[in-house]
Amino acid sequence: AALKEGVGAKLEDLSLSNNGITAKGAQALAGCLAACGSLRVLDLDGNELDDAAKQTLREAVAGREGFGLGL
């Protein structure tokens, strides 16, 4: 919620690796990515993401040149 409210306006690198994030959390993160245009790196390695969740996240950052998405 904080990312959607603009708190992440200057956030550039976010590591959420090994946090037990599931598909539901990935869906919420994907929805926040548009509001956090300054974010350049999102590390979600080691979470419980299925292929569909990973694809949702890839689609959310599609077109953001140089974006680093760790899955």
Provide keyphrases for this structure.
single chain, 71 residues, alpha/beta, three-stranded parallel beta sheet, 3 strands
Description:
By secondary structure, the protein is α/β, with parallel strands linked by helices. The chain has two helices and three strands. Strands 1-2-3 form a three-stranded parallel beta sheet, with helices on one face. Helix 2 links the parallel strand 2 and strand 3. The chain starts with 12 loop residues before the first strand and ends with a strand.
Secondary structure: elements and pairs:
Blueprint (H helix, E strand, L loop, with lengths): L12 E3 L7 H11 L7 E3 L7 H11 L6 E3 L1
Helix pairs in contact: 1-2
Uncertain spans: none
Number of strands: 3
What portion of residues belong to β-strands? 5-15%
Radius of gyration: 11 Å
> Could you say which structural class the secondary elements and strand pairing correspond to?
alpha/beta
The average pLDDT score comes to: 89
Q: What's the main sheet like?
A: 3 strands, parallel
* Terminus-to-terminus distance: 22 Å
Strand order of the largest sheet: 1-2-3
Give me the strand/helix succession: EHEHE
The geometry reads as globular
- Fraction of residues in helices? 25-40%
Total DSSP helices: 2
